[in-house]
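Reviewers of the previous submission asked for a worked example of the structure-prediction workflow described in the proposal, so we include one complete record here. The input consisted solely of the amino acid sequence. No template or homolog information was supplied to the procedure at any stage.
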Amino acid sequence: MLVLTLSVSIPGMKPPECSTAGSTASAEDCEKVSVLQLAVFFGALYILAIGAGGTKPNISTIGADQFDEWDPKEKIQKISFFNWWMFSIFFGTLFANTILVYVQENVGWGWGYGLPTLGLAISIFVFLLGTPYYRHKLPMGSPFLTMARVILASFGKVKTPMPCDPTCFHELPSLEYERKGTFPIHSNQRLRFLDRASLKTGTIGQWNICTTTEVEETKQMLNMLPILCITFVPSAMIAQVNTLFVKQGTTLNARIVGNFSIPPASLSAFGTVSFLVSIFVYDRVFVKIAQKFTGNPRGFTLLQRMGIGLIFYIIVMTVASFTERHRLKVAADHGLIHQTGVKLPLTIFVLLPQFVLMGMADAFLVVAKLEFFYDQAPESMKSLGTSYSLTSLGIGNFLSSFLLSTVSKITIKRGRGWILNNLNESRLDYYYLFFALLNFVNFALFLVVVKFYVYRAEITHSVDVKEEKSKVMGINEDE
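From that input alone, the workflow returned the following structure tokens.
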């Protein structure tokens, strides 16, 4: 962020100004940006991406690790952690989409980048200040190395018969795990092929034999891959908010009062506000009501919460399709189908329902997805589990770009393109309907995957969380 701020502040690094407003000049007539300026700017963006990739999976993980699973009070508090963690993330997004956008457009890019740089500096200082007081887990080694050893060792013994005697499988003494502050994991019947990795064959070596616990940890990570694949389609949906949804807004009347207009990009702020409100209502109201019917301290299981979010995504794209069809009808009724740069006599707030519904969908799926991958990952692979959620977002963006370009090319060849530069000539309503059907198929696959998914067993003793919660809050419940 510091390099990015300097790249738009220092005269030598700052790109030359170019304004074509009120003149016949075009962008091609402007002074070209130098190679050095491009290198500094994009170098800063790549450094920022690398930094985000390293910190994002670990920040939420270390935050969740501050709660002691063996303490009933902290165990209850941890249930709400990811709700409020994502609340803080989206609150920052709201600040960026409103205050920072205003500063960048009306004050300057130097201040626009400088403010978040200052915020990051303060965050680092606070983090370092609190480091001595955090609960730190001992390094367990690379989870990728462990998984690779298990997979290769199991393939190396593919022809070895599988015995039924548990003593034929390698495991460390319980005292060894207690010394590390961890616990052994007992074998289960899922992905039995991998159990060969811990089978004693007389050959000893890091790549020839693994412990039963290492095998089970690998199974747990592989067991979550079908759920990860299910999240690709809704992650692709998130990319639609900042692209096509906003582009729709550029064709509509954005005037509110007098000469005051709302920028189309600011519509995403309504989705963010919807998310923040939904999180608050879900955590403080909805969970308490659901607990009475389900007996689950979370209200719903994590997969049930994800399923509700998937249903919301289907509704979002269905509403967006009907809204776009209405927008196209208005354009046709006023003879503006082939006009570009002309605002339709339709308020921009007609798009508000799809933004609000998108925020509600994210409140269910995005939070549940992050918590699920953290909760279901083994103790030594929590950061890798959290990175599954970010992997979902990354692949979802690539999937969104692939679908957009592919559908655009196919529909143009077959006649009227669904996605053209002029949205009034496009059939974006068909594209949204296609996404609704895609989400429906994805939801059906989700139901199949969930049917066969088995939750990871907790390492803590069985605790009646609901009863403990009543004690913590000072409420006596009559069972």
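The longest strand covers residues 344-347. We consider this example representative of the routine output the project will generate in years two and three.
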